[in-house]
């Protein structure tokens, strides 16, 4: 990948601690990261139910909110699986990066008769996955392990960079953070600054959320993970 730092900075809208991780990757590639997390995350304690046959994780934020115990883990993708292992979970398998793939992995590797599935999520997340699994005959125990609230405003540094035309790209990692980012940009009077910025979306659903404002163009990663999102910066 050839860096394009001379053409401007990269706005990073994902919440911490993921924003700092993405910033490190961008810096190593020669880009200038500009942090503007749209959501603020707060973990919630979870008392693990002993009867669950497996733990399902749909995000790194969910993995990082948990203390490990002995249970098989099915993660939505490789990055979430890596976060689960870093937390201390040892029996971890990864799906191919989205909720449909995770539901398919559950169907391939688990049996409904062996007990319920514990789905650890953020508040208001993964309702579709819960419905998919229940339609396939699984009992699902859905537990909120972190809450995400909209950031009160854009960071001053990000707003200044946007006003000065120093941002060439903006990275978006979820439909909710994309929608919150657009609201923050609009309230700051910066919607007009987006005409010269290329929006990079991790999935088609995220790209759809971005269409409420006008960008230079919107591009979608070939696969829903950070590595493929970063590849969009390749000229």
Describe the structure.
The chain has helices spanning 18-28, 60-64, 78-87, 99-109, 127-135, 156-163, 175-187, 204-210, 226-231; strands at residues 9-12, 33-35, 39-43, 54-57, 73-75, 92-94, 117-122, 140-150, 167-172, 198-201, 217-220. It folds into two domains: 5-38 and 151-231, 3-Layer(aba) Sandwich (Rossmann fold), CATH 3.40.50.10090; 45-148, Rossmann fold. Helix 4 packs parallel to helix 5 (127-135). It has 235 residues and is α/β, with parallel strands linked by helices. The protein contains nine helices and eleven strands.
Write the SSE topology:
Layout: E1 9-12, H1 18-28, E2 33-35, E3 39-43, E4 54-57, H2 60-64, E5 73-75, H3 78-87, E6 92-94, H4 99-109, E7 117-122, H5 127-135, E8 140-150, H6 156-163, E9 167-172, H7 175-187, E10 198-201, H8 204-210, E11 217-220, H9 226-231
Parallel strand pairs: 1-2, 1-9, 4-5, 4-7, 5-6, 7-8, 9-10, 10-11
Antiparallel strand pairs: 3-8
Which terms summarize this structure?
6-stranded mixed beta sheet; Rossmann fold; alpha/beta; 5-stranded parallel beta sheet; single chain; 235 residues; 2 domains; disordered N terminus; 9 helices; 23% strand
CATH class of the largest domain: Alpha Beta
Adjacency order of strands in the biggest sheet: 3-8-7-4-5-6
N- and C-termini, Cα separation? 8 Å
Q: Mean pLDDT, as a whole number?
A: 91
Global outline: elongated
| Class derived from helix and strand content | alpha/beta
Helical content class = 25-40%
Could you say what the CATH architecture of the largest domain is? 3-Layer(aba) Sandwich
Order of helices and strands: EHEEEHEHEHEHEHEHEHEH
Number of domain modules: 2
Number of strands: 11
């Amino acid at each position: 990948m050839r860096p394009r730092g001379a053409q401007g900075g990269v706005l990073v809208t994902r919440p911490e601690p993921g924003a700092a991780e993405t910033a490190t990757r961008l810096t190593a590639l020669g880009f200038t990261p500009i942090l503007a997390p749209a959501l603020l995350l707060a973990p919630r304690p979870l008392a693990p139910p002993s009867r669950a046959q497996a733990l399902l994780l749909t995000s790194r934020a969910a993995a990082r909110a948990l203390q490990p115990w002995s249970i098989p883990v099915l993660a939505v993708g490789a990055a979430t699986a890596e976060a689960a292992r870093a937390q201390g979970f040892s029996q971890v398998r990864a799906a191919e990066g989205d909720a449909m793939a995770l539901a398919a992995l559950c169907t391939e590797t688990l049996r409904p008769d062996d007990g319920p599935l514990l789905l650890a999520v953020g508040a208001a997340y993964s309702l579709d996955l819960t419905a998919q699994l229940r339609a396939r005959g699984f009992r699902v125990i859905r537990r909120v392990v972190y809450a995400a609230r909209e950031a009160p405003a854009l960071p001053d540094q990000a707003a200044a960079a946007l006003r000065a035309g120093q941002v060439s790209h903006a990275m978006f990692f979820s439909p909710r953070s994309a929608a919150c980012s657009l609201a923050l940009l609009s309230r700051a009077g910066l919607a007009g600054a987006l005409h010269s910025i290329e929006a990079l979306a991790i999935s088609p659903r995220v790209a759809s959320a971005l269409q409420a404002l006008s960008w230079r163009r919107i591009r979608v990663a070939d696969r829903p993970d950070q590595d493929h999102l970063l590849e969009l910066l390749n000229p």
